[in-house]
Amino acid sequence: MKKIQISPSILSADFSQLGNEIKRLEQAGADLIHVDVMDGHFVPNLTIGPPVIKALKKNCSLKFDVHLMISPVHKYIEAYADAGSDIITIHPEATGDLGASISKIKELNIMAGVSLNPETNVSVIKEYLNQVDLVLIMSVNPGFGGQKFMPEVLNKIKELKNIQKEQNLNFDIEIDGGINFENSKIAIKAGANILVSGTTIFKSNNGDIKKNIDLLKSI
Fold first, then answer.
1. Which domain holds residue 162?
2. Which of 31, 39, 172, 176 is flagged as catalytic?
3. Are 108 and 81 spatial neighbours (Cβ–Cβ below 8 Å)?
4. In whole numbers, what is the pLDDT of the chain averaged over residues?
5. Does the annotation count 39 as an active-site position?
6. What is the average pLDDT across 39-53?
7. What percent of the chain is helix, strand and coil (3-state, nearest 5)?
């Protein structure tokens, strides 16, 4: 079993103190920093772009786990790579050629991820699983923080674990959306090894980030 990693979503951080918030996450034992990039088109919200990522990355030693919820995504991959992304995750619906977009990420020496919305089946990405480093399962509809976890997506994680075993693949399985201290356990049991959490990490236990990260990691 892979080590459980926590990738806190800075979508729930204090945006007026983002640099300090990331330092707090680093000191509290976060494994990655999850950056949700939204364009107001592919999803109904707007967040941050490459200049902000570049500025934040300067003072952080953790890998930036950048989830691009933008369309068309292909032409922006290089900008986010140059900004300091260590992992770039894209949606199949956001590109005209998923294989070409994955290849472009890899050519830039960045880890490549693909994300599945709750209604998107594993079959859409099955032929690309031998090329990616990560599959991100959305357990809410992307676009807003604070939504309720959708347990039905756990079947996709189990399906991915079966494919991994059959094809001897080693990609990470990440889950994002409504993750809390209860459902994190069933997500890990299903086979997820990276948990994205925003509200739970920043708001629970009076904002004790270290305690919240430790609790999410405990099975």
1. 5-217
2. 176
3. yes
4. 95
5. no
6. 90
7. 45, 20, 35
